[in-house]
UniProtKB/TrEMBL annotation:
Pfam families: fn3. It comes from Nyctiprogne leucopyga. One of its GO terms (biological process) is establishment of mitotic spindle orientation. SMART domains: FN3. GO terms for cellular component: spindle. Residues 1-25 are annotated as: Disordered. It comes from the Eukaryota. The lineage of its organism: Eukaryota, Metazoa, Chordata, Craniata, Vertebrata. This is ANKF1 protein. Coiled coil: none annotated.
Length: 689
């Protein structure tokens, strides 16, 4: 109702030209008109200038209306409307931090009416308090002035309504009177909210941790008190003295989406004390010291001076590959091989002829052999040939049993899709040995080249962790790639996956499906695996569980289906760094003979890590379906912290040495719950990279 009254008032004022109805109305009108509708005429093209000027006026008028709508929503305490406006417009478009003619900002109104939900929403959007309030006295005086002016205006309008005869002007004045009465009550409520407010209590759960060899991180929660005004900022102070004299530095945090702060540029090995205090419109509250009371910047590597495991490895491998390419650049592998045995020469020439012959195309059916298929997908669509078939090319029609060594070699080749031609030339030099392994791998390279040529793209994506087989002797090696742009390919087109699955006519029985039918049936699972294997963990320290099982030709590792490129894990904390003191405590814990070492001293980083590990181990044991009492025989891997980059690090939890790897036929009494799978170790290593 009041919203409608305010709108009626604005319409009435727009129709009626007399002077402003409040002492500040003239200033407000001038400021709004001059600031919002000013146009800079700089073009000699009057037609285009007029068009641009009108558009600019409309745009600014629209934004001005949104700014007014935000003030109105805050004054009416309409949280839903405030949230909608903050989502719809940027802070700049809303003029979120530009005071109105009364010198108030939306955040000022929210905190002085003690509307905590709206105040928090504004703070998370980047709202600030008015810079006019430099002291408590200035804020109190300003509010008193607003209340006095509103009261004066109400008295004037009341007298006019009582003394004038009923007419149109009187009706308009009644509307103005109701609007000013409402504003008078608003200002009184704001003044009372300010007078009854008190400084905030100290923040809670102030925790200090070591972030690196030169930084510490402090995290905290809001004060528990619900009676004080809304907290609008926090102050973090640090010193080398527990008395905080002298003070080494301080930082004010006014972006309250995440309540944490990292103090950078500290000296390794030096103890730093940290405290945090909160601020509201009544001033700063008392500081709260952190737990533990101090932290010493360090890293676990300082314990024994160990260098990062992967330092320089990528550069060294690139350099080594460059050297190999240089050596092979002028070698015999770039010349035709003339001394091959007749049978092999015929096979190679046949493969080459098949590759470069104009009739080279995708296969429609499988006969018995080894094949390569490439699955490209975008949203719910998949690339198929003009015959509505998944792209398939032949690797070897005489190969009916894929050796694990050959498959794993193919997965490594997938890291060098752009180097297939060079790899083919390198493999050719050894053809005279008549090695079956080399022949198979050479044919794999030929099939990759053929698939790349038919699709017109080099990168075929990631190899699925196991081939698709059928009882007819067909084996499909599957690659998967997500296309995120509107990319065009040769000889193929996009179709919905559901349409492909429903329209394809199976040529096999349900009891013995062909490899292609099996692929089509399970394609959604394979796409889900591919998407999940590219997900990354959020920064933090994790506890991983290493469980292996061996077969005749491979070792497999247990991983979660939702994140198959990472070991089974739970998050210990958001800070990925292990300090020197924490690592030293872990070393002592790993060396004791008792199954449960004594707890470290209270209010230390070691004690906090001990508590975090206890929670993480319980959660991890429940996740992998192992009774908690069995965990007493488990051990932490104490040789190193596994660093996966991007602020992600792991501590490993290992079963007893005899149970780390389950042998073929060995009974494992504790089978993980659903949601896990086992990957070949080499595939897992490639995915982890």
């Amino acid at each position: 109702k009041m919203t409608q009254q305010m709108r009626d008032l604005q319409l009435a004022q727009a129709r009626k030209p007399p002077g402003p109805s409040s002492p500040n109305a003239a200033k407000r009108l001038y400021r709004n008109l001059s600031g919002k509708f000013r146009v800079n005429y700089t073009s000699f093209d009057e037609g285009s200038l007029a068009g641009r000027g009108e558009k600019e006026k409309l745009r600014k008028s629209y934004l001005f209306q949104s700014n007014a709508a935000l003030f109105e929503a805050v004054e009416l305490q309409d949280l839903d409307r405030v949230q909608d406006l903050l989502k719809q417009y940027s802070p700049e478009e809303l003029d979120l931090n530009t005071p109105n003619s009364e010198g108030l900002l939306p955040l000022d109104i929210a905190i002085m009416t003690n509307n905590a939900p709206i105040a928090r929403a504004l703070l998370q959007a980047g709202a600030k308090e008015s810079p006019h309030f430099v002291s408590l006295e200035s804020r109190s005086l300003h509010l008193s002035t607003l209340v006095r002016e509103a009261e004066q205006r109400v008295n004037e309008l009341t007298a006019q309504v009582v003394n004038e005869a009923p007419n149109t002007d009187c009706s308009e004045k009644e509307k103005q009177l109701k609007a000013w009465e409402w504003r008078y009550r608003l200002y009184k409520r704001m003044k009372a909210g300010f007078e009854h407010a008190r400084v905030p209590d100290a923040p809670t759960n102030v925790h200090l941790s070591v972030a690196s060899s030169s930084s510490v991180q402090v995290t905290f929660w809001e004060p528990l008190s619900v009676n004080s005004a809304v907290v609008t900022k926090y102050k973090v102070e640090w010193s080398c003295s527990p008395t905080f004299l002298p003070l080494l530095g301080e930082a004010v945090i006014d972006k309250l989406k995440n309540l944490h702060f990292t103090i950078q540029g500290l000296v390794s090995g030096t103890a730093y004390y940290v405290q945090v205090s909160a601020y509201n419109m009544k001033g700063w509250g008392p500081p709260q010291a952190s737990v533990p009371p101090f932290a010493i910047p360090s890293n676990w590597r300082e314990y024994d001076g160990r260098a990062p495991r992967r330092r320089g490895q990528a550069e060294a491998l690139d350099h080594l590959l460059g050297q190999v390419k240089t050596v092979h650049q002028h070698c015999i592998c770039h010349e035709p091989c003339k001394n091959q045995p007749q049978s092999r020469k015929h096979s190679v020439s046949k493969s080459l002829k098949h590759l470069f012959h104009p009739g080279s195309k995708f296969l429609k059916t499988l006969k018995r052999g080894l094949y390569l298929t490439a699955i490209f997908y975008k949203d719910d669509n998949i690339l198929v040939t003009h015959e509505d078939q998944i792209p398939v090319v032949e690797i070897d029609d005489t190969y009916s049993c894929l050796l694990m060594q050959d498959f794993l070699w193919f997965t490594k080749v997938s890291c060098m899709w752009d180097e297939i031609l060079w790899l083919r030339q390198c493999v050719t030099v050894s053809q005279s040995s008549c090695s079956c392994i080399l022949q198979t791998r050479f044919k794999m390279l030929l099939a990759i080249s053929q698939m790349q040529g038919l699709l017109g793209i080099q990168d075929l994506g990631q190899v699925f962790f196991e081939p698709v087989k059928d009882k007819q002797g067909n084996i499909l090696i599957v690659t998967l790639k997500e296309v995120k742009t509107n990319q065009t390919f040769e000889s193929v087109r996009w179709v919905p996956i559901c349409k492909l699955q429903t329209s394809r006519k199976s040529v096999s029985s349900p009891e013995e499906p062909t490899a292609l039918d099996t692929l089509l049936i399970s394609i959604q699972d394979k796409l889900a695996y591919h998407q999940r294997s590219s997900h990354a963990l959020s920064p933090g320290l994790y506890l991983g569980y290493l469980k292996l099982c061996s077969a005749v030709d491979q070792i497999r590792v247990l991983v979660p289906e939702q994140l198959p490129n990472i070991l089974c894990h739970v998050k210990i904390r958001s800070n990925p760094n292990i300090s020197r003191e924490e690592w030293e405590w872990l070393q002592k814990m790993a060396s004791v003979e008792e199954p449960i070492p004594a707890e470290p001293e209270a209010e230390t980083s070691q004690n906090h890590l001990f508590q975090e590990l206890q929670v993480a181990i319980k959660e991890l044991m429940m996740l992998v379906n192992i009774p908690l009492q069995e965990a007493k025989d488990f051990r932490l891997y104490s040789q190193e912290v596994l660093d996966f980059g991007d602020q992600v690090s792991f501590l490993l939890l290992l079963p007893p040495s005899d149970d780390v790897c389950t042998a073929p036929g060995q009974n494992n009494p504790y089978t993980p719950c659903s949601g896990f799978l086992t990957l070949p170790l080499q595939i897992f290593e490639l995915g982890e990279e």
